[in-house]
Amino acid sequence: MQEAKAKIPLCSGKLRWHFIGHLQSNKCRDSIELFEMIQSVDSLPLAQEINKRCDQAAKQMPILLEVNVAGEANKFGYQPEQLFADLKSIHALPRIEIHGLMTVPPWSPESERTRPHFRRLRELKNQCEKILSVPLPHLSMGMSGDFETAIEEGATMLRIGTALFGARMKPLGAR
Protein backbone atom coordinates (compact mmCIF):
# COMPACT_ATOMS: atom_id res chain seq x y z
CA MET A 1 0.00 0.00 0.00
CA GLN A 2 2.84 2.38 0.82
CA GLU A 3 4.41 1.81 -2.59
CA ALA A 4 1.07 2.45 -4.34
CA LYS A 5 0.47 5.66 -2.38
CA ALA A 6 3.86 6.94 -3.50
CA LYS A 7 3.77 5.82 -7.15
CA ILE A 8 0.15 6.13 -8.33
CA PRO A 9 0.06 9.95 -8.17
CA LEU A 10 3.14 10.06 -10.40
CA CYS A 11 1.47 8.06 -13.19
CA SER A 12 -0.95 8.92 -15.96
CA GLY A 13 -4.52 9.47 -14.86
CA LYS A 14 -5.63 7.05 -17.58
CA LEU A 15 -4.26 4.00 -15.78
CA ARG A 16 -6.62 1.71 -13.90
CA TRP A 17 -5.17 0.20 -10.74
CA HIS A 18 -6.12 -3.08 -9.05
CA PHE A 19 -5.05 -4.02 -5.55
CA ILE A 20 -3.56 -7.52 -5.32
CA GLY A 21 -2.15 -8.91 -2.10
CA HIS A 22 -3.23 -9.27 1.48
CA LEU A 23 -5.26 -6.22 2.48
CA GLN A 24 -5.39 -5.30 6.14
CA SER A 25 -8.61 -3.71 7.39
CA ASN A 26 -6.77 -0.57 8.48
CA LYS A 27 -5.73 0.02 4.84
CA CYS A 28 -9.26 -0.16 3.38
CA ARG A 29 -9.76 3.61 3.26
CA ASP A 30 -6.58 4.04 1.21
CA SER A 31 -7.46 1.12 -1.03
CA ILE A 32 -10.84 2.49 -2.04
CA GLU A 33 -9.27 5.86 -2.85
CA LEU A 34 -6.42 4.45 -4.95
CA PHE A 35 -7.79 1.36 -6.67
CA GLU A 36 -10.51 0.60 -9.17
CA MET A 37 -10.78 -3.03 -8.02
CA ILE A 38 -9.63 -5.07 -5.04
CA GLN A 39 -8.64 -8.53 -6.23
CA SER A 40 -7.87 -10.16 -2.92
CA VAL A 41 -10.85 -10.07 -0.57
CA ASP A 42 -10.37 -13.06 1.69
CA SER A 43 -12.91 -12.70 4.51
CA LEU A 44 -16.36 -11.40 5.36
CA PRO A 45 -14.98 -8.91 7.94
CA LEU A 46 -12.68 -7.44 5.27
CA ALA A 47 -15.58 -7.15 2.81
CA GLN A 48 -17.66 -5.45 5.51
CA GLU A 49 -14.88 -2.93 6.18
CA ILE A 50 -14.51 -2.20 2.47
CA ASN A 51 -18.27 -1.74 2.25
CA LYS A 52 -18.21 0.67 5.22
CA ARG A 53 -15.40 2.74 3.71
CA CYS A 54 -17.12 2.78 0.31
CA ASP A 55 -20.33 3.95 1.94
CA GLN A 56 -18.47 6.83 3.56
CA ALA A 57 -16.99 7.75 0.16
CA ALA A 58 -20.28 7.16 -1.74
CA LYS A 59 -18.46 4.69 -3.99
CA GLN A 60 -19.04 1.18 -5.36
CA MET A 61 -16.11 -1.25 -5.28
CA PRO A 62 -15.73 -4.19 -7.63
CA ILE A 63 -13.96 -7.07 -5.89
CA LEU A 64 -12.65 -10.53 -6.55
CA LEU A 65 -12.78 -13.11 -3.79
CA GLU A 66 -9.38 -14.70 -3.24
CA VAL A 67 -9.49 -18.49 -2.90
CA ASN A 68 -6.62 -20.57 -1.58
CA VAL A 69 -7.45 -23.54 -3.84
CA ALA A 70 -4.32 -25.49 -2.85
CA GLY A 71 -4.91 -25.00 0.89
CA GLU A 72 -1.40 -23.65 1.40
CA ALA A 73 -0.82 -22.64 5.02
CA ASN A 74 1.50 -19.77 4.03
CA LYS A 75 -1.03 -18.08 1.70
CA PHE A 76 -4.13 -16.00 2.28
CA GLY A 77 -7.48 -16.69 0.69
CA TYR A 78 -10.75 -18.41 1.33
CA GLN A 79 -11.02 -22.12 1.80
CA PRO A 80 -13.86 -23.24 -0.53
CA GLU A 81 -16.23 -24.18 2.31
CA GLN A 82 -15.87 -20.76 3.95
CA LEU A 83 -16.27 -19.05 0.58
CA PHE A 84 -19.67 -20.68 0.16
CA ALA A 85 -20.62 -19.83 3.77
CA ASP A 86 -19.82 -16.10 3.31
CA LEU A 87 -20.84 -15.64 -0.33
CA LYS A 88 -24.44 -14.46 0.11
CA SER A 89 -23.49 -12.15 2.98
CA ILE A 90 -20.82 -10.45 0.86
CA HIS A 91 -23.17 -10.27 -2.13
CA ALA A 92 -25.73 -8.49 0.09
CA LEU A 93 -23.31 -5.66 0.96
CA PRO A 94 -24.65 -2.64 -0.95
CA ARG A 95 -21.30 -1.05 -1.88
CA ILE A 96 -19.57 -4.27 -2.95
CA GLU A 97 -19.82 -5.83 -6.40
CA ILE A 98 -18.46 -9.39 -6.65
CA HIS A 99 -16.95 -9.71 -10.12
CA GLY A 100 -15.35 -13.12 -9.72
CA LEU A 101 -12.60 -15.13 -8.06
CA MET A 102 -8.81 -14.93 -7.83
CA THR A 103 -6.13 -17.44 -6.88
CA VAL A 104 -2.37 -17.79 -6.68
CA PRO A 105 -1.52 -21.50 -7.03
CA PRO A 106 1.66 -23.10 -5.71
CA TRP A 107 4.66 -22.05 -7.77
CA SER A 108 6.00 -24.66 -10.14
CA PRO A 109 8.57 -24.49 -12.95
CA GLU A 110 6.14 -26.66 -14.94
CA SER A 111 3.05 -24.63 -15.82
CA GLU A 112 1.02 -27.80 -16.38
CA ARG A 113 1.17 -28.48 -12.62
CA THR A 114 -0.95 -25.37 -12.03
CA ARG A 115 -3.77 -26.61 -14.27
CA PRO A 116 -5.71 -28.49 -11.54
CA HIS A 117 -5.73 -25.35 -9.38
CA PHE A 118 -6.98 -23.16 -12.24
CA ARG A 119 -9.61 -25.74 -13.15
CA ARG A 120 -10.75 -25.90 -9.51
CA LEU A 121 -11.13 -22.11 -9.36
CA ARG A 122 -13.24 -22.17 -12.53
CA GLU A 123 -15.44 -24.88 -11.00
CA LEU A 124 -15.81 -22.83 -7.80
CA LYS A 125 -16.78 -19.76 -9.84
CA ASN A 126 -19.48 -21.82 -11.58
CA GLN A 127 -20.81 -22.96 -8.20
CA CYS A 128 -20.81 -19.37 -6.90
CA GLU A 129 -22.77 -18.24 -9.96
CA LYS A 130 -25.40 -20.90 -9.23
CA ILE A 131 -25.61 -19.92 -5.56
CA LEU A 132 -26.01 -16.21 -6.36
CA SER A 133 -27.96 -16.62 -9.63
CA VAL A 134 -25.74 -13.97 -11.24
CA PRO A 135 -22.81 -14.20 -13.63
CA LEU A 136 -19.32 -13.60 -12.26
CA PRO A 137 -17.33 -12.48 -15.30
CA HIS A 138 -13.77 -12.74 -14.00
CA LEU A 139 -11.21 -15.32 -13.05
CA SER A 140 -7.91 -13.71 -12.07
CA MET A 141 -5.33 -16.46 -12.26
CA GLY A 142 -2.07 -17.01 -14.01
CA MET A 143 1.24 -15.24 -13.78
CA SER A 144 4.24 -14.90 -16.08
CA GLY A 145 5.21 -18.57 -15.86
CA ASP A 146 1.80 -20.17 -16.28
CA PHE A 147 -0.53 -17.70 -17.98
CA GLU A 148 -1.07 -19.86 -21.09
CA THR A 149 -2.43 -22.66 -18.91
CA ALA A 150 -4.57 -20.17 -16.99
CA ILE A 151 -6.08 -18.87 -20.24
CA GLU A 152 -6.87 -22.42 -21.33
CA GLU A 153 -8.73 -22.89 -18.03
CA GLY A 154 -10.75 -19.68 -18.36
CA ALA A 155 -8.67 -16.81 -16.95
CA THR A 156 -9.97 -13.36 -17.84
CA MET A 157 -7.30 -11.46 -15.88
CA LEU A 158 -3.59 -12.27 -15.76
CA ARG A 159 -0.78 -11.00 -13.58
CA ILE A 160 2.21 -10.94 -15.93
CA GLY A 161 4.33 -8.07 -14.67
CA THR A 162 7.58 -10.06 -14.71
CA ALA A 163 7.05 -11.06 -18.36
CA LEU A 164 6.36 -7.44 -19.29
CA PHE A 165 8.81 -5.54 -17.10
CA GLY A 166 11.33 -8.06 -15.81
CA ALA A 167 11.96 -9.06 -12.21
CA ARG A 168 11.33 -6.39 -9.59
CA MET A 169 14.28 -4.90 -7.85
CA LYS A 170 14.40 -5.80 -4.21
CA PRO A 171 14.52 -2.94 -1.72
CA LEU A 172 17.89 -2.26 -0.13
CA GLY A 173 18.48 -4.62 2.74
CA ALA A 174 16.01 -7.24 1.47
CA ARG A 175 17.21 -10.81 1.07
Keywords:
7 helices, about 15% strand, about 180 residues, TIM Barrel, alpha/beta, six-stranded parallel sheet
Q: Would you write up a description of this structure?
A:
This protein is α/β, with parallel strands linked by helices and 175 residues long. It has a single domain (18-165), classed as Alanine racemase (TIM Barrel), CATH 3.20.20. The protein is 39% helix and 17% strand. The chain has seven helices and six strands, in the order H-E-H-E-H-E-H-E-H-E-H-E-H. It has helices at residues 2-7, 28-34, 44-57, 80-91, 115-132, 147-152, 161-165; strands spanning 18-19, 37-41, 61-66, 96-102, 138-143, 157-159. It has a six-stranded parallel β-sheet with strand order 1-2-3-4-5-6. Strand 3, helix 4 (80-91) and strand 4 (96-102) form a beta-alpha-beta unit. Helix 4 packs parallel to helix 5. It is globular, with a radius of gyration of 16 Å. The protein starts with a helix and ends in a 10-residue tail after the last helix.
